[in-house]
Amino acid sequence: MLESFSISFESLNFFSIVPMLIAIIGAIVILITDMCIKKNNKQMYTMLTILFLFLDFGYLIAFSHHWESRAFFDLILVDGISLVSQFIILIGAILFVPLTLSYNRFHEFQYPEYYALFLFMCAGFQFMVSSDHLMVIFLGLETASLVLYTLIAMHNRQTAFEAAIKYFTMGALSAGCFAFGAMLLYASTGHLELYGVKSYMEANDYQTSNILLASIVFFIASIGFKSSIVPFHTWTPDVYEGSNSFLAGFMSIIPKIAALVVALRFFSIFMDIPFVHNVFYALVVITITLPNLVALIQKDVKRMLAYSSISHAGFAFSAILINNPQSYSALFAYWILFLFTNLGIFSMLWISRTKEQIWDSRYDHSYDKFSGLIKLCPMAAIIIGLFMLSLAGIPPFSIFWGKIYLMSAVINQGYIYLALIMAINSAIAVYYYLKLIVYMFLKEPILKDGRIYLQNATLPLKIVVGIATLYVSLSIFFVDGLLISIYEIINSSL
Predict the structure, then answer these.
(1) pLDDT one-digit tens code per residue, 335-380
(2) What confidence score (pLDDT) does residue 53 get?
(3) Per-residue confidence at 238, pLDDT binned at 50, 70, 90?
């Protein structure tokens, strides 16, 4: 006869999953509101989404010092890495959502399902970064991924359907690799929780079997796809091109930080194994270099930014290769600085979005579109130029400081050649970032009316661009404090 058992509410540490529950409840509230009130508009859905994201963010801040490290039978892990990554996810979501309040009517923003799915996606990413159990990570990953497939397709254009199908197909392969890798890891170590895997590796003096190495290879493929690591990056430019600029900008930041956290938790266990270290080293070098070279020949700004984001992911992955608290702090600081820069440039692309294919029969944001922009819309040209200089790593703008801290972590660990490769690629990237500035400032305009570049410029969009511009321009004054705060939070959990 089975013995009865009881579980106390306190032992579950239920409050550790309240942030995710707030997002889930918010999604349900939006759907119920739409059923009860028939004459809603997108402004109401957007406000409800932002409200619940703020509640989620506020709860994280208020209770971040009162949580235990583990909850729900060790399935949930609340540590410094989890908190910092959740802050990045929520800040990104709060700042990107107002971009739906554009003048032009895009039909996907009229549906309450769009906003409900967006909140479900945020909850999925939060679960993903708040666990070191592979099954919880997998559930969070697939929850968020399935939502992303749907949101891309809701743009209802031929390129959007193509992008969604490509993303879904590659995503299904990635999910299969993750599940198969987890199975092989369990077969070789007897654990699905990463702290158990780490204990097993330490007890066996980091001796590896062929099954364990095969498991690691599958995880490299799966996580590499989610974070756009070469050679698993091929979906990225097509998906960015097919998505609206709001969603493309969001995808360049939030899914990747979640994938980076999973990679950090998983690969840090095996980084001392020569095979894993060498493979990771090669992937980081290729991911930093190859997209930079391909970006040089792009004709569309959004595709160029897609390859740019792949290269930036390679920079971030170098922190996982280094595998120490300084590199982790530099990674999160780098990604926060990257968040605001990409928020700004994709917001400007969204503001200039028109439904008419005036400049190019295929691309929405060809370089020709921005020819002579300084004469047609000087403020827009200056702001876009500022974001391009930041992406290029030109001082004193934000990403320069992120690269400096990341490269200092690389050099401190003796990876001189890697630092040299990072510096060379930063110099190469300057060319294609400055290419857009050349078009805006040195070429003659194709059109005579500059108002078309501000068709979507509502007050919420202007506020978002203003926040991004101030952050990028004034980062020199607070980047040290940001890095110190992140280091203290991260170090408290390592």
Answers:
(1) 999 899 999 888 888 888 776 666 666 677 778 888 888 888 888 8
(2) 93
(3) confident
- Report the percentage of the chain scoring pLDDT > 90: 16
Q: What is the rounded average pLDDT for all residues in the chain?
A: 85
Q: Global pTM?
A: 0.91
Three-state SS string across the chain, please? Answer: CCCCCCCCHHHHCHHHHHHHHHHHHHHHHHHHHHHHCCCCCHHHHHHHHHHHHHHHHHHHHHHCCCCCCEECCCCEECCHHHHHHHHHHHHHHHHHHHHHCCCCCCHHHHCHHHHHHHHHHHHHHHHHHCCCEHHHHHHHHHHHHHHHHHHHHCCCCHHHHHHHHHHHHHHHHHHHHHHHHHHHHHHHHCCCEHHHHHHHHHHCCCCCCHHHHHHHHHHHHHHHHHCCCCCCCCCHHHHHHHCCHHHHHHHCCHHHHHHHHHHHHHHCCCCCCHHHHHHHHHHHHHHHHHHHHHHCCCCEHHHHHHHHHHHHHHHHHHHHHHCCHHHHHHHHHHHHHHHHHHHHHHHHHHHCCCCCCCCCCCCCCEHHHHCCHHHHCHHHHHHHHHHHHHHCCCCCCHHHHHHHHHHHHHHHCCCHHHHHHHHHHHHHHHHHHHHHHHHHHHCCCCCCCHHHHHCCCCHHHHHHHHHHHHHHHHHHHCHHHHHHHHHHHHHCCC
Is pLDDT of 202 > 90? no
